[in-house]
Amino acid sequence: MSEPQDTKPLPTIFQLTPLDPTYRADPHQVLDDLRARCPVHRDNVSGTFVLTRYNDIRPLVSDRSLWRDPLNAEEAAVMQRRFADVVPEGAARGETTSILMLDDPDHARIRGPLVQAFYARVARSRPQVEEIVDRSLDAIAAITEQGQPFDLMSRFCVPIPIDAIASILGVEHSRLAEFREWSEGVIQSLNPFRNEDQTAQMERCSEALSAYFAATIEERRRNPQDDLISDMTRLQGEGAPLSDVELQINLSALLIGGNLTTTDLIGNAVRLLLLHPEELAKLKADPGLINQVVEETLRYEPPVDITGRIASRDMEVGGCPVKTSQAFTFSLRAANRDPDVFEDPHRFDVNRKGKPHVAFGGGAHICIGAPLARLEAQVALGKLFERFPNLRFAEPEAAPEWRTLPFFRGLERLELRA
């Protein structure tokens, strides 16, 4: 374990979430100090080794031999074990959790056909995404014509990702309101510190979503449509080895993985461009820079703070011995602003070159929704600033309203004028 440079106590896992006001206001005030003093350390509150350096995290997050399933973690890894505390004894692992938490062979067996069908859908989904974005912009235009400010999060950033995945899945337009409610509820499954009310909301929405998918899978098997659920039932019929329960769980995971995170990617990007008018001017002068804008946002202000792995063997990381079944928590946010890797890391620069960010993780568990998130952000940002070139903060001096959901970074509200 690397030694801290002074005697100031190291932050606990709670101090590395927006539940802590200092971290919520500026995560890098905490992370820069931690990375400089003790870049690999054991946090006894979470029962994990917390890593903050890019050159430690990048190879480990890409190491396919490490485990993801919390059932493989030692009992002391209380944060990871929280995700495994409701597993029925004797249940097939693939029917109790999604590919987010599975190891091979179940992970590869389920992710393979899902990637095949999902990526094919994403590759031809740009017209759908453009239509969804245009609808949101039309609704905003009706407000701005009256000279009123509007909340970009609720009017634009929240509905676009949910409506996009709903369109790909084949959710009926009349059920979008329900679908949005369920998808907002199930995101609490990624909050290990959720309270009783949040857990109850999560369970209610998860049950409703599972029932919806169960009925829809059966209906699509009888009457295929032009959507992802029909694609998956076809692959099942052709021999893809996954059950209906596994399909339900992983369709829900597509929502969890891409709903809130893409909302935050779009919102964070808009805020950054308005805070850095010189970078926004570059985009307006050359719309072809949109891909670089999205990638720099993912590096500079990623939606997700952390990911985790479990040691599948005894190993050493940053001079710190780690035993089999001990858990890692990787601070993706800290890695993406590591000064040993990124020149002037706290500068938002849409022309930045160099090593890639780790905002989507890596290896076998690299974010399955990354291609769709990139597409949605590119279309949304490009069209937003084209439609409203004079977009600006409604109250330029107002402090940002960051949400407090642990391990995610996004805005509650973003009041703008056009």
From TrEMBL:
Role this protein plays: Cytochromes P450 are a group of heme-thiolate monooxygenases. They oxidize a variety of structurally unrelated compounds, including steroids, fatty acids, and xenobiotics.
Record flagged with keyword Nuclease: no
The family this protein is said to belong to: Belongs to the cytochrome P450 family.
Native organism taxonomy: Bacteria, Pseudomonadati, Pseudomonadota, Alphaproteobacteria, Caulobacterales
Organism: Phenylobacterium montanum
Matches recorded under InterPro entries: Cyt_P450, Cyt_P450_B, Cyt_P450_CS, Cyt_P450_sf
Protein name from the UniProt record: Cytochrome P450
Swiss-Prot/TrEMBL keywords: Heme, Iron, Metal-binding, Monooxygenase, Oxidoreductase
Molecular-function annotations in GO: heme binding; iron ion binding; monooxygenase activity; oxidoreductase activity, acting on paired donors, with incorporation or reduction of molecular oxygen
Entry keyword annotation includes Nucleotide-binding: no
Pfam families per UniProt: p450
